[in-house]
Each structure stands twice: as C-alpha cells, then as structure tokens.
Amino acid sequence: MAVDSVTIALVGSGGAGVMTAGQMLLDAAAAVGWYGLMSRSSGPQIRGGEAAAMVRLSPSPVHGPGDRFDLIVAFDWQNVERFAAELPLSADSVIVTDPAQGAVPAVLAASGARIIEMPIKELAARIAGGRVNMVGLGAVAQTVGLPRAGIDAVIAKALGKKGEAAIQASNAGYDAGAKEAAGWGLGLELAAPQGTGAVRWNISGNEAAGLGALKGGVRFCAAYPITPATEILEWLAPNLARTGGTLVQAEDELASITMCLGASFGGVPSLTATAGPGLSLMTEAIGLGVASETPVVIIDVQRGGPSTGIPTKSEQSDLNIAVYGLHGDAPHLVVGPTSIGDCLFTAQWAVHLAEALQTPCIMLSDQSLGQARAVIDRPADAPFTAGRLLAEGLDGEARYKRYADTPSGISPVAIPGMPGGEHTADGLEHAESALPSSQAADHQTQLDKRLRKLTAFDFGPHWAEIEGEGEVAVVTWGSATGPAREAVKRLEAAGGKARLVAIRLLAPVQPAKLAQALEGVTRVLVVEQTHGAQFHKFLRAHYDLPGSVTVFSRPGPLPIRAREVHEALLSLI
Amino acid sequence: MDTHLKDGAAPVPGDYKSDVKPIWCPGCGDYSVLAGITRAMAAMGLERHNTAVVSGIGCSSRIPAYTSVYGFHGVHGRALAVASGLKLARPDLTVLVFGGDGDGFSIGGNHFLHACRRNVDLTYIVMDNQVYGMTKGQASPTTEADWCESKLTPEGPGVNPIQPVALALSCGANFVARGYSGDPNEVARLIVEGVRHPGFAVIHVLSPCVTFRPEQRSWKGAVHPYGREPTDDPAQAMRAVLEDDGFGLGIFLAGNRRPFHPAVAATAGIAEIEEGFAV
C-alpha cells in the first residue's frame, strides 16, 4: 500500500554529498509531480563535519517535518551523535548502513529500527567516477517509487556542464543503488502525485523572502553576511541588479541598516537581512527609522540564541527583541511568515506596510523556514507594492511640514529632488516642521502621531491565518504554524475540531481581531519554539485569552513536530 | 523662507541658509564652517532640491537644520553610512556629509575606513576641535595624550591622537584636504573642489571649540598654507602629511580612483525572475 508521506534522512560527513543528494531527490520528486520539503542539519564546521539532508515527500503540500524518519541512509556515521536527537526513529524505521563504516551507533540502534546493510562505498568504487551519494540516492528513489524520469531530468540539469562522463557515472551509481534496494520490500512507496494542475515552485524560504521584497518594490539592499540569513542576500545580489537595484555588502550591521535608511530617505524602498546578533546591533538605527519616519524592512532569520547561540539551527526567540528591543516609545511593525511560501507574501506585505506607514518593519523568519527548500504551489500574486504618501502643493507659500500632525498620523513626505520639500529628516524629537525640539508638547504630538499611524491603519484580513472551528484553538506564529496546521488537520481527519490562528502581524497588536477569532473558544493551545515562552507571554501582555491556556514551548534546535502538537491537542479535547 | 532660488539671479550664500538659529556657543568655529558651506553651495549654484546634507550627532552634526537643502540628521557615528546609501540609491543627488572628530573617528571610525576605501562620490567635511563638545568636554580620538581638562580622563587620555588626514590617505580616500574655520573662503574653495572631484572627498577642517578648549584660539597663528600643489600620488601626499605639523592647509591629494557605483539599468522583469523557481 502506498504511503501519503515519507521522511528520509541522508547522513554523512562533509564531502559525502548528502546535501547534493537531498537536493536532487527533492528536485526529482518535484519533476514527477510530488511535493516536498528539505531541511538541513549541519554543525558549525565550514567544510566537512557532520551533516544531514532531511527530506519529506508527499503527494500533497508539506507543512513541516515528519513525525519521525522512515528511512535513514548513512554514508558514514562520523559525529552523528551530535545530532542524533534530530533524527527521531521508531521500530518501523529503516536504517541503511554501509558495514564498512562500522556498526550503527547505539543511540540510533536503540530505536529498534530495522537495519539493512548496503556496501555503499564499494558499489560507488566499482564505477569510474562513481560517488556514494548517487548510490544512496538510487536506493532512496527505488524505496519511495520515484519514477526514473524524475532523476533523468535532474541529473541532466545538475551535471550537464560536467560532461557526458559525469552523467554516465551518476546514472550508473543511481542504478547500482536502486538495484540494491529493489528487494528490500519496505512498503514506503509514495502515493502517486495528485496532479492538481497548479504551477509548482521549488524555492527556499530565504529565496521567497528575497522575491517578496523585489515584488514589493525593494531596490536597495545593504547587509552584512550572517547565518542563516545570507541566502537572502545571495539571491538578491544578482536579482536586484537585474531589476535595476543595488546591493551593497556593508562593513557591519550598523552600516547596513543606516545605509538602508539613507537610500530610503532618497525614496528607494530598502531592505536589510540579518540574524539575531545583527538585529541587536541595528536596534538603535531602527529607532532612528521610527523617529525620522523612514521606511525600511529588516528581515531577521532567527536562530538559536542568545549571543552567537546556535547559528545553524532554528528558534523563535528573537520575538522579544523585535517587539520590545527599541529604545524609547517606538511603535513599529513586526510580521512573521507562516510558511516557506508565505515568506514571499509576508516580505512583500512588509515592504508595503513599511512604505505606507513610513516606519521600519521587522520580519521574523527563522532558520527552519529560511534554509529549508520546498516544492509548493506557486503563491498567488498579492497586490502589495511600495507606495509612499507624497507631499503635494510644495510650490505654495506655506512652509512644508514634514511631520505634519494628520488624522491618519501619516505625514505626506517630500523626497530629495522635489522642489519646495526641502527639510531635514531628524532622529531628534522635532516639531511638525522637522526642526529639533525638546518641548513636551512636540514630543507628545509626535509620539501620538507615530502610534496613531499604526493603530488607525486597516491591516485587513492578513493579520493572521485563521482556519477550522470548534472550542479548542491553537494560537501560534511563524514556523510553528506548519506543524500546528498539520496537527489540526490530523485531528479533523479523525473527526475532531480545532481552530488554528497563526498570527502574521505581531506588532501592532490586534486585540479586537483576535477576540473575534477566538469567540466561543474555551481552551487555547499556544505553540512556539522558545525556551521562555516568549510568544505566550506576549499574548498574555496584550490580549485576553479565553478559557484555559496550555503552552507548548520548547527551544531549538529540535523542530516542533506535528505529532507533538497533535498529542497536546488531544489532551485538551 | 523662499524655497526656490530666484529665477535668473545668481545664487548667494543666504539662499542656502535656513532661518534656524544655531545652538552653538558664541565664538564656535562651526559658524564659520557653515558660512564656508553656504558659500560653496552658492559658488556651485547647487539646486537645493537636488542637494542633500547628512550628519550624525554632535555640535557640527546640527548643520543640516541650518541649511535649506534636504537633510538627514541621524544618530551618532552613522552619517557616512546613511550618505553612502543615499548616494548609491540616488546618484543624481549632490550629497555632503558633516560631522565632528568623535562622530567621524571614534564611534563612526569603521564607517570612515570603509567610506575611504569604498569611494562613493560623497564630500565629507569633518570639523575637528579635538574635544567632545556636546557632552561637555571629553577627550576625542584627536585629543592630545596629555590633555588633562576632562573629568573622565583627569590624567589625560594617555593615548596617541589619530591624524585624520593620514588616516584618510592610508585608507584610500581619493581627495584629501585640510581647512581652517577662520578662513571660510578657503573652506568654501576646498568644498567646491571636493564636490567636483569624483569619488570620496575628505575635508578635514580645524574648527576650534572655544568653550572647552579656549587655548585653540591660538590656532589662528598656527595654521599655514601647506605650500605644495595637490598631487594625485597617495604616497607623495602621505610623505607630505607626515612632514607637516598638523596645521598645514590645502589639498594634499586629488587622486584618480574610479568612484564606486554599481550599474543600475534593469535587464529583467519580476516575471522572468520568477520563472527560475518553476518546477
């Protein structure tokens, strides 16, 4: 019987090619119509060291990691203990191991998983130019029933430049692995693709964020490389250039954010991307963006913290700094994408909001969204672009008031190049004229105005994703949404009922809207990936949560799995 | 305040002044630098709406509010980064940057290094009074090691002052000059030359703080023409700077490095880029 989802790990130390093989598996599965998700686990080593490509395939869209691994193919076991906790197994799991690489480590063998020995290295060595990763890939492909056409397309694309010999070697390795696996009879053949007819994309969260920024109108980026945000910059560098924009590798994060403020002052929508430590360095200048009313988007791809924490692994623990980290009273925007595909929507919306409200917007992605790659249905086009309320009638007698106190709180802005709009944007408190002022009345007026911009704005239905019904609700955000969504679907499939509320707009808070979304709810489950339950406390501070509240919160690097959320939900039913 | 220059009339320095009264102490050197700036703007006939001045924080960084062009008054130390972003995003603008010795060489030191080597077409006027005036008199990166007047460093800072002109040269700045606020016409001339020179221009202006460093009044007698023609050879300029006593005025280097500016012509639409993700 075919399965609806299969979760595979390719494990090996640097040079074994696990990431390449995982990538090819995902690409080949995509080519024949399946959906999938690939995440990476690696240590801090630059080259070499332990690594695993974790791939989940399904005929329908994949929301998060599988509950456990159905199949692990290990090219070697070097340092696997370091991330054994990230490789949950059961007695139903299968471990494929090369006997030449020694015994299966006890920490994995203890699961009771079935162990199959396969002379991976030897099989590869028999082929001129043969590589272990292609042998492993062949075995996995055979196990899940991947049609040969899928891998043909991928090998041709990946190795076309390397010549016919490389293609032949890869094919031979693949075939050798497939032949080995033909007799295993594991029952892990994946159900046939459903063929929804939708255009599908193969995209990472970081790429999706970059694309969303471009679609929103960003044409300037200054940034400093940091894991796990760098891929946003690497994707933007050529694509900004293609669209007439500019990317600058700045000397540090302080330069990154302030260069963006300068470009934005010049009227060009701007973005920087960073991770937690970089966000900390930027917070003073984000406050400058608030005070000077200069729009800018900061994408924080969160990782384990504090300090340098665990740079290659995910967490949602920058919520507090993103929401509360600025000095003074500094109302600003904070948004969080709910999936890899939603990184596009949320980044595009972030640009739109920042520009419309003339204020910084922090987008909280994380490593598990950013560095994971998924096959998804092409996201629908969203109508959000950068549009700043420009000053008009500047040729008149009246002096232009950059920070005019308007009912909406939004002051029409003059951009350099507009005659009559000359003014100084200022981080010092100022009067409506933009001239520095330390007078109480001016401070009160400008504080009120900057807050009113956010509280008076209609964010529409995009503040959250709301699904399902019933008296039990899961309230979550960001990357925790995927497993929460899958858990709710699982409950529904068994005849249960639950609501899912995934909050996309973290700041400003929307208490009336959440109250409406939770009407009739008596039990709430909060799901997040932090140690200190930051999101739960955030909700407690700003919202009235109905009935009893249960919190599922744990730090990284272990991903939250649907099974865990499902179990927590069942205990509330 | 008129917001436009009068049609046909030659611009005058007053056209570039705002009606805001500076917060500076009586006798501050920055008044004269401001005069030099507006004279330079008038001499070049800059269009106000196509000119932007950027600053960080400190006494001299207040200058944007005192001019009538576009301005950005940011936070301590980041003026050069703000200006770099602005100029790269809007190459059509004339962008000048103002700041002091603390803003430029201490908290903003890293940006100074990289602005020199990046060579964006900016003109940076750094007003050096060898003291933190706005925080009421502490040592700056250009203060002498034995200056004992600060409560923070009563025995003197005890560390060598940096030499801004030599630092700029060593980091690859393309145009390096020194002026003195007591001679606003010369400051204006240096600014005009700096703006016209392609790439990053550093103009170090000795600008006394008579409140916390009254002895700087003596600079009037100490300054002297640097006395040589500008060179385009950084090594030659560096030799001359090292031989100088720190009070030589003039253009040390007018180099010929190519300014940094990425191409900005679009070659693809979003739809074309999106196609790259299709399975």
Automatic annotation (TrEMBL), chain A:
UniProt record, GO biological process: response to oxidative stress
Stretches assigned to the Pyruvate/ketoisovalerate oxidoreductase catalytic domain: 14-175
Domain Transketolase C-terminal: 469-530
GO function terms (MF aspect): oxidoreductase activity, acting on the aldehyde or oxo group of donors
Domain Pyruvate flavodoxin/ferredoxin oxidoreductase pyrimidine binding: residue ranges: 212-443
Domain of life: Bacteria
Keyword Magnesium: no
Transmembrane intervals: none
Keyword Oxidoreductase part of the UniProt annotation: yes
Keywords annotated in UniProt: Oxidoreductase
Protein name: 2-oxoglutarate synthase
Protein's organism: Azospirillum thermophilum
TrEMBL record, chain B:
Name this protein carries in UniProt: 2-oxoglutarate synthase
GO biological process: cellular respiration; small molecule metabolic process
Molecular functions (GO terms): oxidoreductase activity, acting on the aldehyde or oxo group of donors, iron-sulfur protein as acceptor; thiamine pyrophosphate binding
InterPro entries registered for this protein in UniProt: 2-oxoacid:Fd_oxidoreductase (IPR051457), OFOB (IPR011896), THDP-binding (IPR029061), TPP_enzyme_TPP-bd (IPR011766)
UniProt xrefs under Pfam families: TPP_enzyme_C
Thiamine pyrophosphate enzyme TPP-binding domain span: 57-205
This protein's record includes keyword tRNA-binding: no
Cofactor or coenzyme needed: [4Fe-4S] cluster
UniProtKB keywords: Oxidoreductase
Organism the protein comes from: Azospirillum thermophilum
PANTHER family, A to Z: 2-OXOGLUTARATE OXIDOREDUCTASE SUBUNIT KORB (PTHR48084:SF4), 2-OXOGLUTARATE OXIDOREDUCTASE SUBUNIT KORB-RELATED (PTHR48084)
Domain of life: Bacteria
